[in-house]
Structures are given as C-alpha cells and as structure tokens.
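Our consortium's second objective concerns turning raw sequence data into structural hypotheses that experimental partners can test. To show how far this objective has progressed, the report includes one record in full. It was chosen at random from the queue rather than selected for favorable results. The single chain below, 300 residues long, was entered without modification.
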Amino acid sequence: MLNPVAAPPRLVSVSTIWLQPKTLPEALAMLAADPALTPFAGGTDLYPAQAARFAWGEALPEAILDLGALPEFWGIAADATQWRIGAGATWAQLRDAALPAEFDVLRAASCQVGGAQIQNRGTIGGNLCNASPAADGVPPLLALDAAVELASLRGTRTLPLGKFLLGNRQTERAPDELLTAVLVPHRAGDLRSGFEKLGARHYLVISIVMVAAMVRMEAGRIAEAAIAVGACSAVAQRLPALEAALRGSRPGEVAVTPGQLDHLAPIDDARATGAYRREAALVLVRRLLARLALPEALVA
C-alpha cells in the first residue's frame, strides 16, 4: 500500500494589510517606517510565490505596498541623454511602444515573456527586482547598457544594471528603496539588435537559454557590440571577449568560439543540463549574430 502524501500544515488565520500610497514620497515614507513591506506592481511573480508559501503553511506578508497608483512608476519618455522607462511599464507597453531600432531586442523579449495575460500585467521593474537567473528582461537591458533608478527618503541613486543584480533573487536594492525606473542611454548610428530564446515551447515557459545582442555598424564594420546570455549563470552575463573580437570586423568575419563563453556557469536542473545550456548558448549567439548581419531578416 502506498503511503499517503502528507497534507501541508493549515494556517489558522491570514491577515495581510494592503497599503496603496498615492504619491512616491508617501510610498517611501511607508517603506522607511516599515522596510519589511512587500512592494507590489504587476503581481505576476509575487502571487505564485505567495500561493506556494500559503499552501505549505508559511507566513504570508503582513503588509503589501501597492505601487499601482504612483504616477512616477508609469510611462516611457526620453530626454536629451536617455530613455526613462517607468518601473511599472508592462511588457505589453514595451512590446507596442514606438521605440527606436536599438530597442528591437527588448521588444522581441517582451513578446516572449509568459503569455498575453502576463505581458499585460507583468512589469519591467518587477522582473528586475525578482532577479531570477532566467528573467527575460535582463539580457536585453544589459545589451542596452541600462541602469536602474532607486529612490528612498535618503535620496535617489542610479546603478548600472550589472551592479544592481547580485545573484539568484539577490539585488542591491536596500530595504527602504524602491526601483522607480530603468534608464537606457541614447545611441546614434546604424543600430541593430535582436533576441533569441530557447524553451520547451514558444510561450508560457521559463527560458533554458536566451541571448540578446546590439551592434552598431560603421562603413560596413562592427563599431560596437554588446552581447548578453541569460539562464546560464546566477546573473545574466555579457560576453566581453567576444565583444572585443567583433569590434572593427565585418559581419561574419569573426568565428564565435566556446572559449568566448567560458565565464558562463550553467547548472543542471529540471529544464536542461549545464552542458546542454553551454552548447545551446553557443548556437544561439552564432545564430543571432548571423541574423543581425542581415537586418532585413530581423523579425521584431
């Protein structure tokens, strides 16, 4: 006779306070008074995590800080030096926004985050603060040299995305800070960018490997290259050796070698082995660079 599966322990009571500040200073004051507050934006990461905790009898957050009413969290705008993407911008908004060519990489990733419902609710700020190694938004933003804006009652600071993300579910955000925006510098010239994702299916899937790239062309040569690989390390990684090799070359002149991906650290898990991920990353990098060499073949 099979042993029955033990039922999870049952919570006696649940009491979660829902706070909805109307301004950013009000939200920051609430967070300063209680840094244990759980920020809430789209909820597409928070809800599944809390449902699992509840099912096994673990404590739910005592209070939720709902950021949906803060005007500073919404909108996509440009000034003289950069684009400012509000942390509450959804994947659907990024997918449909009239952004310049270098954002093709982020637009393509936005089309592959979950399904339509996730794209309508999930936010770019939540994706970054959740800090999953398989976060689809991270490699495109690394390729775009993005930074994050963090606000608290102590002031506002800006960090390069590569310094904000510390590891699996770990960021540089202090307990009294909120991520308010993603900042992307302006670029000029012949810019081409793209995104490749490998998963068990096309939608509603956690990435096995993903690759994002942006290149700037001058007189038929690659003047600048930025390539990032996700789901192959605790944090998505740029490929500096390959980027350096590509500068000054014509598309297709530089062979992508396994050694240029040596610093990646893919793991074995339920979706793939580390060896498979490493080989797949090499294939996707080669495929994406070949596609960027023919801009007319790009599919947004």
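The partners drew two points from this record. Residues 1-13, 296-300 have pLDDT under 50 and may be disordered. The radius of gyration is 20 Å. Both points have been shared with the crystallography group to help prioritize constructs.
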